[in-house]
Amino acid sequence: MRRFQLLLLASLLAAPAAAAERYIAFGDSITEGFGDSSSPPGYPPKLKRILSDAGRDVTIDNFGLGGETSFEGLSRIDSALDGGGDYLLLMEGTNDITMVAEGALSIESVVANLDTMASKARARGIRPLLGTVLPRPPQARRDKDNFLTRELNWQLYEMAAATARPFADLWARFNRFTDPDVFRTLYSNLAEDPVGHPNEAGYQVIAELFADQILGTDTLAPVPGRFAPFTTTLAGPTEFTATLFESAAGAGIKLKKTYFEINGEAVAKPIRSSSSKRKATFRHSSNLNKLGCRVVLGFRGRDQADPPNLFAQLIWAYSIEGREHVPADIDGDCTVDRPDLEQFTLGFGAESGDPEYSLLLDLNSDDVIDGLDFAIFASKFGVSTR
Fold this sequence. Notes:
Elements: H1 2-14, E1 21-27, H2 29-32, H3 43-53, E2 58-64, H4 70-81, E3 87-91, H5 94-101, H6 107-123, E4 127-131, H7 147-163, E5 167-168, H8 170-173, H9 182-185, H10 200-215, E6 223-228, E7 233-234, E8 238-245, E9 259-262, E10 265-268, E11 270-273, E12 279-286, E13 294-302, E14 310-320, H11 338-347, H12 371-380
Parallel strand pairs: 1-2, 1-3, 3-4, 4-5, 7-14
Antiparallel strand pairs: 6-8, 8-12, 9-10, 9-13, 11-12, 13-14
Helix pairs in contact: 3-10, 4-6, 6-7
């Protein structure tokens, strides 16, 4: 018996230690860490700490290069992959958007470049994990309204769904619909910053989003992708469509509990979904005569995580041609009345970031729903634009 114990101990001592995992952080100045006051900067060292605390022995090599486009990244990705590894953390496209805005590049070519880089990693046995592109803050020099950045991310969702690749969704987390205060709290706002870079807190959030995908911690709700019509004013009978996505690392969308909403009312269940339940398409036709003076499009539902991630997400808001909308008309029925007061009361006192906060209730857009907003609401109570 003692001889067996000695042999077992010897075999344990002789067993090689578990090899460290190698992560390749690849991208532009956001991967490099521009705008982060901590040392070393960027999300890679913060991600390493999170993974180490979770018991992972990891090395993360930072291949971020400021000012790089996806075409330039494609020319150097092989050298980054040559050393092998476990994950390619790929986050690029911000600088391409500037070129797209200037007519020198197409979004389709950017997506193709990212797809090629991810495929090169997969061919070497390295798992690609895509990071979507951050929204640009209002002071950005190009695409400050984020129309092009939104389109790029929509196409990245589609590419990830078609290839069953996981993605860390920076676009959804840093979006003003998700966090109305995001440009003040998570961006560096440096005067010389033409595209918008995170601050130290923002880079920590990016690290957490990547860690969630690597560790299988499903904390982000499904996100809306392309929707239609993509306009600001409606003029007649309209068919609304929208697609909902969840990363391949997520648990899937709870389709029976997820709805398309118009003006806060559930109007449609999915008409089509993927076999993995990580992509679902919704459609609803409406007669504008029944929709009042404004249309707010959204989703409400949950995913299949345990515990589930609940979500109530605004997608877009439309005005209706020929009809005047008063901001205090919260439900958009052309009259500021008791139902609007009831909705306003539910959010009173909430600040940006609180679950009860809504841009629809913050009538003076100062990130808090307070007496000033109530004064505006009271001054419009009883107004009808029918």
